[in-house]
Amino acid sequence: MSPIPTISDVEAAAERLSDYAIQTPVLESERVNDQLGCRLLIKAENLQRTGSFKFRGAFNMISGLAEEERSNGVVAFSSGNHAQGVAAAAKILGIKASIVMPADAPQIKIDNTRGDGADVVLYNRTDGNRVAIAEEIIAKTGAILIPPYNAHEIMVGQGTLGLEFFQQNKEMGASLDYLLGPCSGGGMIGGSAIVFSDRSPATEVYAVEPVGYDDTTLSLAKGERVQIKPGTPSFCDALLLETPGEITFAVNKELLAGGLVVSQAETAEAMKTAFQEYKIVVEPGGAVALAAALSGKIKVRGSKIGVICTGGNVDAATFKDVLDGKYD
Question: Which residues of the chain fall below pLDDT 50?
Answer without folding.
Answer: 1
